[in-house]
Please model this.
Amino acid sequence: MLKNRPSPPAASLLAALGLCATTLWPVHATASQALAQKYACVACHQPATKTVGPSWKDIRAKYGDGTTATQLAATIKAGSTGKWGAMPMPPQPSIPDADLQTLAQWVLDGPRP
Model:
């Protein structure tokens, strides 16, 4: 009956790999969604629907062609005018750079609602 159980070292490795696989992306996605809510990004941006600003999906489509998270984070921090029509993106200088980087990477990776 015990022949089908992995050995303790193999079981530990499988547990560690499973932990990494199940936590890295979901924690990143959850943390970034929380950041989008914390900094009120969701007041203007939604996963797939244009509201005041473009959707996360539209941003990813426009900037996913080689724009880095660092470049997108800089745009978020500085704000912009005319990239998405008449509505300007107000600058976000009070958001810490690490959070801007996380948010930008989350948008480029394809946020999960």
